[in-house]
Design a protein that fits this description.
By secondary structure, this protein is α/β, with parallel strands linked by helices. Helix content is about 25%, strand content about 30%. It has 6 helices and 17 strands. It has a 6-stranded antiparallel barrel with strand order 12-15-14-13-16-17. Strand 16 and strand 17 form a beta hairpin. Helix 1 packs parallel to helix 2.
């Protein structure tokens, strides 16, 4: 009997190629479309792609769960002064939990998605960066509990995005006319516009060296390290150094003042025991840096060996082995120094 796998199919090229590969390798494939928000066009494409493979297609409505665990949580964090990572929350609370649930309920063997990562299962689950350094998505899995990944396989971990795109466009010409999915799937006009529509305009001030240098429409619309669209006319390039949401003020400074030596991390999740020294990555595609780790009152303190530009509360800190290959775990940044 063929091994059976539940593939999370989004209607995009990566999840389709995952299902395609597994089908070619002899797996009995179920394509599961997890409905996060109303998008009939994407749903129909996912159904068409499943039919094209001759795979079983199932639908799971997660709109209410997604709104609570991802959209509302992200908005609430933003209004509390954090810069959230909705994609990581979705992987942690929605996608992999549902895939594992459907696998278990349907008595299938594995789950799979189109993530560019590698995973190995022995006595424990170990996750490694994907072969494609530019596309590696291990950072976004740092918060996912290992119980949801214990039956996961990731075929794309050994490929580059460029290769996947070329192979699929050669075999199925229609992929040339389908654009890549956006980072925030539930936002059409931009995350700032979503927050502004939710909370309205709150006029405030940009300050640099205790001087008002421009006005803004709400401190919650900005994040640490941001430099574009600040509206000032200073002769130097300025960045958001800090925020005061109570006063609705955004403090600007030159780049060198935005570097930090330490982060405080909570909501911890580990795949392997964290050594006293490892690498930490504080945003997607950022350069990992060496840090020393210590714990205090269920929080993790990571002291950088070299200062890091604008680590941002609310973002994910992903920890890696010193050779920068194995993902050891992660958490949410709640403070800096």
């Amino acid at each position: 009997m063929n091994k059976r796998v539940v593939v999370g199919i989004s209607g995009g090229i990566d999840s389709f190629y995952t299902a395609f590969l597994l089908k070619e390798r002899g797996f009995d494939v179920m394509c599961l479309y997890i409905n996060l928000f109303d998008n009939h066009e994407v749903f129909l494409r996912a159904k068409m792609l499943s039919d094209l493979l001759g795979a079983k297609f199932e639908f799971y409505d997660a709109i209410k769960e997604f709104k609570k665990e991802v959209i509302d949580r992200s908005i609430n964090m933003t209004l509390s002064g954090y810069t959230p990572n909705p994609c990581a929350f979705c992987n942690m609370k929605i996608k992999f939990r549902i895939l594992e649930k459907i696998r278990s309920d349907s008595n299938y063997d594995y789950i799979s998605t189109g993530h560019y990562v590698k995973i190995f299962h022995n006595s424990t689950t170990k996750i490694f960066r994907g072969f494609d350094e530019k596309k590696d998505q291990s950072y976004f899995l740092a918060l996912v509990p290992s119980i949801y990944l214990k039956n996961a396989i990731f075929p794309l971990g050994n490929f580059t995005k460029k290769y996947v795109k070329r192979v699929m466009e050669e075999k199925y010409l229609f992929w040339k006319d389908i654009s890549s999915s956006q980072d925030l799937c539930f936002v059409k006009k931009g995350y700032k516009k979503l927050i502004q529509d939710k909370c309205g305009v709150k006029f405030g001030k940009f300050l640099y060296k205790n001087r008002v240098v421009a006005n803004h429409w709400g401190s919650y619309l900005y994040t640490l390290g941001e430099s574009r669209g600040l509206g000032h006319k200073e002769p130097v390039k300025l960045y958001v150094e800090s925020l005061n949401h109570e006063k609705n003020e955004v403090y600007l400074n030159t780049r060198e003042f935005c570097y930090k030596s330490l982060i405080v991390v909570a909501d911890l999740n580990f795949f392997n025991k964290l050594p006293n020294r490892c690498l930490v990555q504080i945003r997607y595609q950022a350069k990992p840096v060496i840090c020393d780790i210590h714990f205090r009152e269920s929080k993790l303190y990571a002291n950088f060996h070299e200062k890091v530009f604008a680590p941002t509360p609310g973002q994910i800190a992903s920890f890696y082995s010193l050779d920068n290959r194995e993902l050891l775990g992660g958490g949410i940044i709640i403070g800096t120094d």
